[in-house]
Amino acid sequence: MTAYTATVTVRLKHGVLDPEAETTQRALERLGFELEGLRSADRFEVDLDAESADAAADRAEEMAERLLANPTIHDYEVAVEER
Amino acid sequence: MTVAVVQFGGSNCDRDAVRALEHLGIDAERAWHEDGLPDDTTGIVLPGGFSYGDYLRAGAMAARAPVMAEVRDLAEDGVPVLGVCNGAQIGSESGLTPGAFTTNRSARFQCEHVHVRIERADTPWTSAYDEGDVIELPIAHGEGRFELGESAYDRLERDDRVLFRYCDPDGTVTEAANPNGSRGNVAGVLGERETVAVLMPHPERATVPDLGLTDGQGILQGFAAAR
Asked: What is chain B's pLDDT, residue by residue, as a tens digit (227 residues)?
C-alpha cells in the first residue's frame, strides 16, 4: 500500500450561473482591480492508502460521484500524488 | 397511521409541519433521523431548515443519511413523500426528484411571499386546486434556484413533472416573478411517482389561519388524498 493525496476539484459546469463568483468579481472590481472574469471551485484533498495511483484515483472519483460533486450541476477532476 | 416529519440536526421547520398537518386533522409526528421511521409511517415530510449547516451543498449531507434509504424504499412502495425547502434540496440531492437547487441568482437569502401556478391538478398534492390556479406562499432560502441540464429539463417538461411555477399574481409566468433565477420558473417538481414531490416555498407556513395565509393547505392535504 502506498500513501497518496487525491485532490478533487469540483466546479460548476460550463454555462451554469455562479452568483457567488459574480459577486466576488464585483467586489474585486470595487477594490479597483481589473479583471475579465472569475470562476470559483471547491478543492478537496483526500489522504488515502491504495495499491496504486490508479486505485487511489478510482476511489477519489467515486467519492466525487457519490458526494463531493452533484453531477447535475458540477464537473470534477481528480489528481493523485504520493504523500 | 402517521406522517413522519424527519428531523435532522439543523432542521427547523419540523414543528411547523407537524402543527400544520395536525391543524388539517392529519396525524403527524417528528422522527429523529437516527431513530429511523416509525413502523406506522403513512407519509413522510422532509422539512425545511439548514440540515448539517448546509455544509458542502444544502441538503447534501442529509441526503446521504441512512434514514434516506428507508424514505426511498417507502417512496417506491407508494408512501407519499413531500420535501419542503431544505427538504426539497435533500430530495433532489438524494435523487428522489430530478434537478438541483442551488445558489439564488441574487446570491442572497430571500425571505418573501411569492405566487406559484398549479401546473397539474391530478396529483395528491394539488387535487384541492384546479390546473392554472395561483396560490401565494412564503419562500425563505438562499439556494433555491432550480437547475437541470437542457436535455434533462426538456424531458422533465415532456413528462409533465413540473408541479409549481413562480408566476405573477394573475398566473403569468414571467422572469420578473422568478425570485431566484430557477430554470423555467420551476418552484416544485414531481419524482418518478406522483406521490413524491418537492418544492422550495413553504406550504406549512401558509396553512394555520393565525399566520395569515392558508393557500398551502391543499398541498399538505395531499397526505390525506394519497391514502
From this structure: 799 999 999 999 999 999 999 999 999 999 999 999 999 999 999 999 999 999 999 999 999 999 999 999 999 999 999 999 999 999 999 999 999 999 999 999 999 999 999 999 999 999 999 999 999 999 999 999 999 999 999 999 999 999 999 999 999 999 999 999 999 999 999 999 999 999 999 999 999 999 999 999 999 999 998 65
**Which pairing describes strands B145-147 and B196-199: parallel, antiparallel, or unpaired?**
unpaired
Contact B37, B28 (CB under 8 A): no
Q: Do A68 and B107 touch (CB under 8 A)?
A: no
Write down the pTM of the prediction. Answer: 0.95
Fold category of B2-225 in CATH: Rossmann fold (3.40.50)
Residues of B in contact with A17 (CB under 8 A): 105, 145, 147, 181
Helix (H) or strand (E) holding B81, with range, is strand B81-84
Domain of A45 in residue numbering reads as 2-82
**Number of structural domains, chain A?**
1
